[in-house]
Amino acid sequence: xxxxxTHTTTYQYADPxxxxxxxxMMTPRNDSRTRCESHRIKIQPTPQxxxxxxDYFGNLVHCFSIEESHRQLKVTATSRVTVEALQLPPLPETxxxxxxxxxxxNAADADWFPASLTTFDSPRVLRDATxxxxxxxxxxxxxxxxxxxxxxxERINHDFTYDTxxxxxxxxxxxxxxxxxxxxxDFAHVQIACLRSLGLPARYVSGYLRTIPPPGEPxxxxxxxxxxxxxxxxxxxxxxxxxxxxxxxxxxxDHVPSAWGRDYGDVTPLKGVFLGxxxxxxxxxxxxxxxx
Amino acid sequence: xxxxxxxxxDDPSSVLSSYRPTDAVFDEFCDADGAPRPHWAKFLGQLDAxxxxxFLRRWEQAKxxxxxxxxxxxxxxxxxxxxxxxxxxxxxxxxxxxxxxxxTSALEQRAHLLELILGDLFGPQRLLKDRILPPDLLFGHPxxxxxxxxxxxxxxxxxxxxxxxxxxxxxxxxxVMGDRTRxxxxxxxxxxxxxxxxxxxxxxxxxxQVQRLAPFFIAxxxxxxxxxxxxxxxxxxxxxxxxxxxxxxxxxxxxxRYLGYTLVEGGDLAVRNGRVMLKTLGGLLPxxxxxxxxxxxxxxxxxxxxxxxxxxxGLLEIVRSGAVAIANPLGSRLVESPILxxxxxxxxxxxxxxxxxxxxxxTWWCGQPEARxxxxxxxxxxxxxxxFRTADDPPIHPTRLSAAExxxxxxxxxxxxxxxxxxxxxxxxxxxxxxDDGPAPWHVALRSFLVSRDYGYTALPGALARVAPDAHDxxxxxxxxxxxxxxxxxxDAPTPNVSLLPVAEDHVVLRRAGSDxxxxxxxxxxxxxxxxxxxxxxxxxxxTVLELSSSETEQPEMLHRLYRALAExxxxxxxxxxDDLGAPLPDVxxxxxxxxxxxxxxxxxxxxIAQAERLVSTVRDRVSVDAxxxxxxxxxxxRRPQFDVLDSSDVLELLNKVLTELLAFAGLAGESMTxxxxxxxxxxxxxxxxxxxxxxxxxxxxxxxxxxERPLLDAILQAADSIMTYRSRYLASVQIAAVLDxxxxxxxxxxxxxxxxxxxxxxxxxxxxxxxxxxxxxxxxLAVSLRNAVRLADVYELVKSEGEGERPQLERLxxxxxxxxxxxxxxxxxxxxxxxxxxxxxxxxxxxxxxxxK
Lengths: 292, 854
Prior knowledge:
The structure holds 2 protein chains of 2 kinds. Chain A is of the alpha+beta class. Chain A folds into 2 domains: about 100 residues, Sandwich (Immunoglobulin-like), CATH 2.60.40; about 180 residues, C8orf32 fold (Roll). Helices cover about 20% and strands about 40% of the residues of chain A. In chain A, strands 1, 2, 3, 4, 5, 13 and 14 form a 7-stranded antiparallel sheet that branches. In chain A, α3 packs across α6 and α4 crosses α6. Chain A is globular, with a radius of gyration of 20 Å. By secondary structure, chain B is α+β, with helices and mostly antiparallel strands. Chain B has a domain of about 300 residues. In chain B, α19 runs antiparallel to α20, α21 packs antiparallel against α28 and α26 runs antiparallel to α28. Chain B is elongated, with a radius of gyration of 32 Å. Chain B starts with about 40 loop residues before the first helix and ends with a helix. The N terminus and C terminus of chain B are likely disordered.
């Protein structure tokens, strides 16, 4: 499947902003199933300095500073990406989850090291017994890992209410968990907390989701989603499997990852600081256009 | 504190003859038989040559000196807590260089090892991948940010400054109790101890061939200079402090002065055009090296802790590019965690192929089941510490816990074992300390300092010694009840004299103006000037009022005018001077006495002086020690006396004393401060304040004429410190026109408003300005217009009264001054002093703004 993705972020300020320092993570990653064919980032006004580098996780980051007064900041990221379908063995044939946990903890798995990082606490995801208890219902002893993960994804999708007003970007994961409410970011954090509390490696993924219009209606341009889900390590044979608790699915060609990290803080699409600005208004539009 | 009485039994003049060490611990001074160790002999001879009384006298003098120099430390971990004078003990600890060389060679190895570990953790991570270290050490560390990885450019060391906390066991062996790799504190105190001890015992210091500390600081300066990527012969190196509220601020300022670096806070710095810039009055100046005292996490809110406001936004990107170097590099604190000590011997063998030359205190990390079991089996012999040290928490002594507390501790360890380590303890050595009961054996903790060089690390030939009667007090941060001692490393050969002053060949570019004054510091000088002048003006008026209200020739109307002036200057509550002549005057006199000390009123004398003291501490790296002492004395003098009821003679006496100290400060500022921008802002603040005070006083007292004005005019001349000038010109004939001429219009009188305005106009004309801009700046325009208004005023018009006695011309002129002077101050602030506000974060609410509902 090939897509053209256009992600536009606009900040309109009531007062001039004198300076900003920002970093952008909007470039789709190359991975076993995804290939970024071309990519372009346009920043208006034109920054004094733009640096391009890879972060610790291998995500592509653009750092820029604008040091002249501006009332609008517009970042447009355009990419062409090819996504291949996920190949999974039948879920009941995936390894028992404890073997994955132990193989990472004991460095027995060939890919234990990058997985190990995602078993620890991170600033927004703190392991806790209550998460472990919730997860244990799905992760019964020796249950195949992907089957258990899929069930946990389904339970979160079922037990939690999607509510854009219940949480903010700063709501701690345990609070969202208690409320059983939140948005895709909270859902992903909750499931990551559940998995890590069992000792399993899980990382946060930010990216794009293609939305399929209802039958008979045309595709609406710009109505697609900048989205977040998570990825669970299932041993070096299977690798990382992405699941989306917001949409209750195992991700395949509708999800295009752009960055992953320990949690939202590592992969925020646009982060940074600015001086001045007064009241401001943020508009984001995402267009995921299938090319085939 | 004349409480030191020695109870020497044999020789009353000998300082240490009554010293008796405790059994079962190593003593630095006595050997196992109780005889002084040979390397103390020369020192002992010198000490006894002075005799006990003289020694104690000099020590008392030194303590007073420390108090008046404001050498303080804050014993609490929380920044902003109260600080107290540095507790110092005049007897040094003596170590022979043969022993010290062994210690430092072991520490050089250790510093090198820690540097290699940091380089690996933030680079290839082989130690983790090869399972030499558990991944918890990095990934489980609450202070770990992935941004630290790959941050320090290749070729730069990951550890510039290192300190080790040492203890000596009963068998005489030294142990490393802990590592300090973030921004080791204590160097400044070690230096101050040396300065004071060599002053108390100058002859002993010379004769004992004590190794000098200065070569270490020279090495440190060279090392920092070599970190610079550009301008290597004269890079701009700044000492980055957490700020005047932090507990290390005294030391930061002390070191900045000694090393000759500008002391800055995060707000003084900004990232512009790919460089780190210092915001100064003269504009933005590029910075090459930052000597960091900041916490790692707080340095850049873009990539590190987003909640921190103390850092420099965008800093990490500049570090990555190599345009600025930071010492210690960010993330360095990760290797000071106790968890690492459990693995250090193995890592040393793995990386260096040799054994650790000095053992760390035995440490068991509870994240490993066998180690945890060992800890549980030996709870009575060990202490428990957090595995990832983020604060200087005291260790937990299981033996001191109740049974219930012990169970809680075990439960806590079992639920998060990786968060704890168990450590052995060392029975620390003792050394003589002068107590009220004579010399006593107190336990010793040494902190040793190292700095990186091309070839490895070099150690300070000395150390910071902390001594306490209870050895447990030395296991964490400086606590109350302990003292500090100098450490002398004795050489067999004479030691060369070394100084930090540059040698003659290194010629520097001659400079006159210091334009690199951080804008924040200029602002502090400006307000310091305002506060000291406000204090001075308030005292003069208070004194006049107190004298009049207690004298017999009481004039209610005149006093009422003066009270009004006091109220407008914020000295008393305005309620006392409601304009109702029919009502009897409230008993302001009594209120007044307490109002002087009322720190709830923002402009009271006590509050004003407290502000001045706070400000002088924020610029203490830029004012002389004398100026600091002067402000300290002003503050001391202005405390409320300890009587229950104050009478006016007590307060008058106190006001006179404070005034004398204020004048001493003014004299210092006038005669000893270089005419830098700092001085200019101090003086500008003073002039603005004086002009405003005089205008306010005249406005409250003279814009409405009264029957017999002469006593009131007399009082005003007193309050404006112009009575002598007046009498020398007009003898006893007091007339309002002559008074106003002297106090407002006469440019030759340093007390007149016109004089202040002329000085203000000069100052704002000299401030740095954009050469490309034509015409006058806003503050210049205001200064010129005020000065002209005063120059053009006709004194006979000013005194003219109308109908009910109002003087409309006078009132108009004074009101203009009262309203415009603050505007002038604001104009200066907005152009030079106040830079843009707090940075704000992009609130990219990815989820709520963008995701559709499911």
